[in-house]
Each structure stands twice: as C-alpha cells, then as structure tokens.
Amino acid sequence: MSILHDLAATIETRKGADPDSSWTAKLLAKGPEKCAEKFGEEAIEAIIEAVKGNRNGLVSEGADVLYHFLVMLAARDVALEDVLSELARRQGTSGIAEKAARPEG
Ligand SMILES: N=c1c2ncn([C@@H]3O[C@H](COP(=O)(O)OP(=O)(O)OP(=O)(O)O)[C@@H](O)[C@H]3O)c2ncn1[C@@H]1O[C@H](COP(=O)(O)O)[C@@H](O)[C@H]1O
C-alpha cells in the first residue's frame, strides 16, 4: 500500500463521522461542491509556488493538493484505484515510441 492508498483509506473512514471529530469529516460534511472548491484553492496555491520557483512551498502545497484531491474523489464516491487504473491504461496507449511500434491501421 502506498501513502496515497493509506490516506484514501483514512479519508474513507471519515465519511459520515462526527464533523467535530476531524478536519476531513468536517470538510466532507460540507458536501462535494465544497470539497471541489477546496481542491481548486489548493491547486491555485500550488500554481503560485511553482510560478515563484519556491521549491519548499511547492512541496507543501503539493501535499495539500493530493490530500484535497483524495477528499474530492471520496466526496463523489470515486475510488483512487479508478484514477490509477486510468493512468495505467494511458501508459499503454500513449507515447511516441509505443505509437511508432504499433502496426499501421
Ligand atoms: N493530509 C492532510 C491534510 N492536508 C491539509 N489538511 C487540512 O486542510 C486544511 C487546509 O488548510 P486551509 O488553510 O485551507 O484551512 P482553513 O483555512 O482552516 O479552512 P477554510 O476555512 O478555508 O475552509 C488545514 O486545516 C489542514 O489541517 C489536512 N488534513 C488532514 N490530512 C491527512 O488526513 C488524515 C486525517 O485527518 P483528520 O480527518 O483531520 O483526522 C491526517 O492524518 C492527515 O494524514
């Protein structure tokens, strides 16, 4: 299990939990739209750090982005595994070398 899988599993346990018991439970209780909004805010903060060239800031905001991405997925009942499977599928269908190796037609 990766850290992302561990975190996704923790976030899953926060669904329906008392909003006063954890930050994640509180955010999920506000609904999927709020979760998506928070993801957008964190993404913008990461963009700002990237544009500034602030390595430490980008690492920190990047962690926020990944956490809020997982919360957004959980809020819409989309499994991390589905996103990872989509990435894996693309590994097999993209890339100049792979395309060149494929027969015509
Ligand atoms: N990785 C994170 C993580 N990253 C960011 N955050 C929270 O996300 C919030 C985002 O910061 P903001 O400044 O936007 O928050 P805010 O200003 O208080 O919120 P708003 O008023 O803007 O809505 C912070 O309060 C952080 O605590 C996180 N909260 C939890 N986790 C992980 O999730 C696990 C479960 O957390 P709890 O559900 O809180 O136990 C933890 O063990 C951590 O591993």
TrEMBL record:
One function term, GO molecular function aspect: ATP binding
Gene3D superfamilies: MazG-like
GO cellular component, one term: cytoplasm
Substrates-to-products reaction catalysed: 1-(5-phospho-beta-D-ribosyl)-ATP + H2O = 1-(5-phospho-beta-D-ribosyl)-5'-AMP + diphosphate + H(+)
Pathway(s) where this gene product acts: Amino-acid biosynthesis; L-histidine biosynthesis; L-histidine from 5-phospho-alpha-D-ribose 1-diphosphate: step 2/9
Primary location recorded for the protein, binned into one broad class: cytoplasm
Gene Ontology BP, a term: L-histidine biosynthetic process
Subcellular location: Cytoplasm
E.C. designation(s): 3.6.1.31
Keywords, in A-Z order: Amino-acid biosynthesis, ATP-binding, Cytoplasm, Histidine biosynthesis, Hydrolase, Nucleotide-binding
Superkingdom assignment: Bacteria
Family: Belongs to the PRA-PH family.
Listed name of the protein: Phosphoribosyl-ATP pyrophosphatase
Organism: Ruegeria marina
Gene responsible for this protein: hisE
